């Protein structure tokens, strides 16, 4: 996805609001999850993320997403965000986010199975173990927050 940053999306410093960037991340991840499973999907979790540099009004925000892990009904999507200065062509990386989507059965509204992920490139295979560890930590945090809510 590419988004030209317009004045109505800016904070008082003239750069895009963090919440707007998170909205774009959610959308890019949703489309990626939908394309993988061809089912309705919902956001289950967004991992901690940082904003490493501002994206200013008049610059292009570049958002790219790919699936990095699939389990029974859940999918982890890595989203990379960057900026491009349209006058100089300079590009900067600004954020990386990991988003978990869950596929939903349209009739029962319950989590539904998704197709497996076929790992082809060497970097995809190498990243798989790290993705499994991220999922383990995410589910531990989920269990903690579930207990805290009781
Ligand atoms: C996400 C949701 C469907 C999970 O439903 P649930 O009844 O808790 O189902 P389960 O516990 O069986 O979890 C289903 C899958 O989601 C995963 N999951 C659920 N919450 C998760 C979280 N916080 N982080 C990572 N994975 C999560 C589970 O690990 C499981 O994965 P698997 O099937 O691949 O093994 C449910 O919590 C929900 O509807 N949440 C609200 C979603 C929403 O409104 N999002 C914002 C707008 S789209």
TrEMBL record:
UniProt cross-references to Pfam families, sorted A to Z: 4HBT
CDD domains cross-referenced by the UniProt entry: BFIT_BACH
GO biological processes: acyl-CoA metabolic process; fatty acid catabolic process
GO cellular component labels: cytosol
InterPro entries, per the entry: Cytosol_ACT (IPR040170), HOTDOG_ACOT (IPR033120), HotDog_dom_sf (IPR029069), Thioestr_dom (IPR006683)
Record keyword Protein transport present: no
The HotDog ACOT-type domain, residue ranges: 1-107
Gene Ontology MF: a single term: long-chain fatty acyl-CoA hydrolase activity
Keywords: Hydrolase
Similarity annotation: Belongs to the acyl coenzyme A hydrolase family.
Entries under PANTHER family matching the protein: ACYL COENZYME A THIOESTER HYDROLASE (PTHR11049), CYTOSOLIC ACYL COENZYME A THIOESTER HYDROLASE (PTHR11049:SF24)
Protein name stated in the entry: Acyl-CoA thioesterase
Organism taxonomic ancestry: Bacteria, Candidatus Eiseniibacteriota
């Amino acid at each position: 996805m590419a988004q030209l940053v317009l004045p109505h999306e800016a904070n008082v410093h003239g750069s895009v609001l963090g919440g707007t960037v998170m909205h774009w991340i959610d959308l890019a991840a949703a489309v990626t999850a939908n394309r993988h499973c061809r089912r309705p999907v919902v956001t289950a979790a967004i991992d901690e993320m940082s904003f490493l540099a501002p994206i200013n009004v008049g610059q292009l925000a570049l958002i790219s997403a790919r699936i990095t892990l699939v389990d029974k009904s859940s999918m982890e999507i890595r989203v990379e965000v960057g900026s491009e200065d349209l006058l100089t062509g300079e590009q900067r990386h600004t954020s990386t986010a990991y988003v978990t989507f869950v596929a939903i059965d349209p009739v029962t509204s319950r989590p539904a199975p998704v197709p497996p992920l076929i790992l082809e490139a060497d970097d995809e295979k190498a990243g798989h173990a790290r993705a499994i560890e991220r999922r383990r930590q995410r589910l531990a945090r989920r269990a903690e927050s579930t207990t805290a809510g009781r």
